[in-house]
Amino acid sequence: MKSHAKAVVIGGGVVGASVLFHLARAGWKDVMLIERSELTSGSSWHAAGGFHTLNGDPNVAKLQAYTVQLYKELEEISGQSCGLHLTGGVMMADTPERMDFLRLTHAKGRYLGMETELITPSEAKAMFPLMDETNFVGAMWDPVEGHLDPSGTTHAYAKAAKKLGAEIVLRNRVVELTQEVDGTWNVVTEQGTVKAEHVVNCGGLWAREIGRMAGLELPVLAMEHMYLLTEPMPEVEEFNRSTGREMIGVIDFKGEIYTRQERNGILLGTYEKAAKPWSPVETPWSFGHELLPPDLDRIAPSLEVGFRHFPGIEKAGIKQIINGPFTFAPDGNPLVGPVQGLTNYWTACAVMAGFSQGGGVGLALSNWMVHGDPGFDVWGMDVARFGEWATLRYTNAKVRENYSRRFSIRFPNEELPAARPAQTTPLYDTMAANNAIMGDSWGLETPLWFAPKGTEPKDIVSFHRSNDFEHIGNEVRATRERVGVTEIANFAKYEVSGPGAEDFLNRLMTNRMPKVGRIVLTPMLNEFGKLIGDFTIAKAAEERFMIFGSSAAQKYHMRWFERHLPKDGSVRLHRFDQTLVGLSIAGPRSRDLLAKLVDADVSNKAFRFMDFREMAVGGAPCMVNRVTYTGDLGYEIWMAPAYQRLVYAAIKQAGQEFGIADFGMRALLSMRLEKNFPTWFRELRPIYGVFEGSMDRFIKLDKNDFIGREQAAREQAEGPKLRRVSFVVDAIDADVMGDEPIWAKVSTDYGTIEKPHGFGAPRFDGAGKEVRGSMVANGNDSSGIRGIVDGEWRVVGWVTSGGYAHYVQKSMAQGYVPSALAENENEGLFEIEILGRRRPARINIAPPFDPGGEKMRT
Length: 858
Description:
GO terms for molecular function: oxidoreductase activity. It contains 20 helices and 39 strands. The chain is α+β, with helices and mostly antiparallel strands and 858 residues long.
């Protein structure tokens, strides 16, 4: 074993092997993988080996598609078979709600170029005759699903990496990690110490322990997972003989099971409700190439449903029961990327779907390490998406919840209860007493909407407009016509100070920094000119700036800020988190209300739009911004938590005269839609340029040289390929939720749709005949098409967010379309697909509420 390496990958499962291969292929030859035992000794060896491309996050789905596409190339490079079986698969819906979910998933696949198809239960049965199709109302076919040999695939990555110059050291446990002043890591192993510039935690079942070596408590937990293998089944053998094909994979949401052919029998696995963690505090280093005792009683409820839905399996004998641990993050997605606060410590763990995601994780992480950027929008996998609140007990509760819901529908208005409340503000009990329905905003309890007194504060979950609709409308109207108050503690808050503060911010941000007492709005770009931040910045004093942004991106942005801090100590950076909280008042009477709470002149002349002041509000020391996300006259009021109850009580008491009302986050988001305001991580993401995001007025190319300036200037000169636009949608009883395809009646192929798959599996009926253009399940897909072209109609873009704009009484959406279409407000040009039904939509360039912005400024 050599004593120095550019990077050391810890862990020899499929993810570690993939990271090693991708680093070597990216040009880092001096890389090493260290494994405590043999390759695949953690979870990889006993995995069911299934793969698919579908994911709730389309950006993760793209990386899963890359993983599947990679396998044939990997076999060619390594000479090692991956045992690839590209059978295709179906998801079965047993209720109308689950069918709505499949329509939504199918629609997302359109702009990704996925070849999914909505089919009838009878068509699904023709490909998997072991099912009783009368239990289902419809299904979705995906040709790019299948299974492989886990051990062979992991060794294919490893052999390919070694051919490219990488080193693999087996039977050598890492026992300690220490870091030198220069950032170099000492990777202390049983066989000696390796000095490395970079360390990558691909520890799998031991990822927590590898994290703790660097002072981290990563939010990852292993769960026991069971699947069974049947004895040979005559029905399977006959299907193979008569069709010349394998049976397809099937996911049954009701039964919480998945199934596929394994040799001449069936593999059936379950994500049962009675989820059981494995080694919830520490993973024993002594655990080896072994399985856990089976527990059929725990999965019996799922098996009962499964046998009812698939009676052909019930009478088969069980050959083997596999029970092994797999790791999960609280939301089920991987933990990938650099860790904020540490130098060159990287994670690629909690990849429970390693054979669907391992290749994409390896590609993104190698890009990140070698080129400074993952090359994709990987927010759904970024380790920075969790804050300090994701403790061991939080993680254990959330992972159990996620595991037990893996095949459950997550409705757009559904708030999951596990591990809550984690963080609360001083107003939590007050908001609950006001009948607030609370939501989880980056671990913080935040009011979503307020139910009328005497009614139960509860969301009725649905893909359609629900019980909150009327009440959100009332909150919006009260704010627009009188005055409303909402809690904004869930915003991110930072202070940047010191003699180098202004130069530092000018280097990071696209807009000019404000004068003392003034505010600017500004995007932030990466080196490639892509949007990685959107902030409100107030200059509180000559060497002190207050910054407000998205709470979910706090660790993400701190990681970037720290990376660019000057080495001379001229800049101090502080993240407040919940040591600074806030309230916002908005509406035409908000100035009158503020005037009653302060001993200062807040007239329009004395306290202008985009002004910042430090003043006492209701007797409490506060900072006040004259700006709100409602797009109306309003103010953001920031204070220490000790003063929040005082300020809120003063606002409510003084506001009685003006008919004040509480409003929640859903009303706030409704009001931002009618102003065409974008929101971070929906409209503004690292896959978009600043001009594509229609943020033109906030970028000053003639100021100093800021990060991404050259690329932004090139984008402006060449013209953005896409543009963010706002639509008015002729919706019925359901509004857009995000990720829906945008259709346009055009003859030109704008080239905005990339096919992420290089190959696909055809679909066959029970007689082995290829099926094409079959009927759609229940006849409910009015588009009548397969794919992204329908005569003159083409999928030209995608929705990023939307909902109902209550004050202007319009269903609205924001999304990206080719620039050539972005200023066309004609009727009949666009349609947006909502739950499988295409609805007319029209671009709305001017915001429907206060298009001239007079209300904010006067």
